[in-house]
Amino acid sequence: MGFANLVQAIPSFAVVAIVVPLLSIGFTLALFAIFLRVLLPIVKNTYVGLSEVGEVMIDAAEGIG
């Protein structure tokens, strides 16, 4: 989660500037930058959502099967 928070704090333009020497300018670079911008908030929010599930809900889910 620390890595996801760190990368999410970096501005999009900085991500592009860091990745340009590795991938060159083009479609691949744009796709990679968009992928990072979209994936990290999803991972972070999924982790927080799953870690905040209450014990009562877990017991109910185990009872259902």
Describe the 3D structure.
With 65 residues, this protein is an all-alpha fold. The protein has one domain (2-64). The chain is built from four helices and no strands. The chain has helices at residues 2-9, 12-23, 27-51, 55-64.
What fraction strand?
under 5%
Give the % helix: over 70%
Number of strands: 0
The termini sit apart by 30 Å
The low-confidence parts are none
Layout of SSEs?
Blueprint: H1 2-9, H2 12-23, H3 27-51, H4 55-64
Question: Which descriptors would you attach to this protein?
Answer:
mainly alpha; 65 residues; 0% strand; 4 helices; elongated; single chain; 85% helix
Short description:
The protein has helices spanning 2-9, 12-23, 27-51, 55-64.
